Amino acid sequence: MDENGRLLGRITIDDVVDVIREEGEHQFMGQAGLSEDEDMFAPVMVSAKRRALWLGVNLLTAFLASWVIRQFEATLDQIVALAVLMPIVASMGGIAGTQTLTLAIRGLALGQLSHKNARWLLAKELAVGTINSAIWAVVVGVAAGLWFNDSSIALLIAAAMTINLIFAALAGAILPIALEKLGIDPALAGGVLLTTVTDVVGFLAFLGLATIYLL
């Protein structure tokens, strides 16, 4: 409707479904660093070139996470349990961040999210991250404590889990908005950068706290 009350057009349910389907495909492809124009029958060199960039970016971020772990090599040598539990902290952070990232990218694509209501999203995701971190920190802490029969390990992984889940939720909300502002497709770059944040923060929190309090 225009300002005079005249009908300008209409949006049918088919239009809405098409948008959701296209965005779903875009996001699904983006999680692998691909775009919708990626064709399975494209020439080898064309496909290789399209994918090489994000493989390279991912490699650099993987080296960064490995570098963080290397800084705590002495700690890992003394407390083997840390090496066993590290993937749990990183994985939980990755999933929590991806949930928020997915919602934010979808909101941007459908016009539901903009810089005007970004603060609302951050506040909401901070609250969600805090609640989930409290729940799963207790679950994982109890499981780790029973597994290794060590209350210190339980408290340590619970604290690291809390830190990483909260950071993951915030990163999942901030990254899509920031990338779009920079002119970078959030669906293509968001997943790679989010993984870096959750891995680095998770390892740094877990191993850093272990170095401070267990050695």
Automatic annotation (TrEMBL):
Membrane topology recorded in Swiss-Prot or TrEMBL: Multi-pass membrane protein
Superkingdom per UniProt: Bacteria
Membrane-spanning intervals of the chain: 52-69, 81-105, 126-147, 153-179, 191-214
Domain SLC41A/MgtE integral membrane: 86-209
InterPro entries, per database record: CBS_dom_sf, SLC41_membr_dom, SLC41_membr_dom_sf
Keywords assigned: Magnesium, Membrane, Transmembrane, Transmembrane helix, Transport
Gene3D superfamilies given in the database record: SLC41 divalent cation transporters, integral membrane domain (1.10.357.20)
Recorded GO CC terms: membrane
Record-level Gene Ontology MF annotations: monoatomic cation transmembrane transporter activity
Pfam families from the UniProt entry: MgtE
Cellular localization per UniProt: Membrane
Keyword Aminoacyl-tRNA synthetase: no
The keyword Thylakoid belongs to this UniProt entry's keyword annotation: no
Family the entry assigns: Belongs to the SLC41A transporter family.
Protein name per its UniProtKB record: Magnesium transporter
Protein species of origin: endosymbiont of Riftia pachyptila
